[in-house]
Amino acid sequence: MALRIASRAPVKASTENSLLRKEPTWGDVVRLQNIVAVLSPTNGAHLVTVLGSISAGPLHLQTVRNAAAHRNHQTLSAVNALRPYYIATRIGHPAEAALWSDPTTKDYAVLGWIEEMRIIADLMTA
């Protein structure tokens, strides 16, 4: 009986998290200043200043990463909301947004995200 039922409708593995859950925080750029305040390092004021200069790059990377790790309509909508910032094409998977182009440099978006994080790291360790 089970074989007959299975042959009518093949079983497909789910590739999408359809449950919108509260997931653990990963690389939350917005919380970095709070972390510095709690740790209270001697260069805390400098770190907070540098972290305050973060623009969209790391936030966009965080959005795309979260959507790729926790696939559902809500996270995909968050990625699609980034489209105006890039020369964007339709995507089938959230990670494909990393291959959108920066309108200024014409480089892949991910290269701009990495470059901004390098600059921030250099400034934080100066």
What does this 3D model show about the protein?
The protein is built from six helices and no strands. The chain is globular, with a radius of gyration of 20 Å. The chain starts with a helix and ends with a helix. The protein is an all-alpha fold and 126 residues long. It has a domain at 55-124. The longest helix is centred in the C-terminal third of the chain and has 16 residues, at 109-124. Helix 2 (32-39) packs antiparallel against helix 3 and helix 4 runs antiparallel to helix 5.
Short recap of the structure:
With 126 residues, the chain is mainly α.
Tell me the helix content.
40-55%
Largest beta-sheet details: none
Unreliable runs: 1-7
Number of strands: 0
What general outline do the C-alpha atoms trace? globular
Question: Order of helices and strands, N to C?
Answer: HHHHHH
Share in β-strands: under 5%
Could you tell me the radius of gyration in angstroms? 20 Å
Helix/strand-derived class? mainly alpha
> Treating each run of at least 4 consecutive H or I residues as one helix, how many helices?
6
What's the average pLDDT? 83
First-residue to last-residue Cα separation: 70 Å
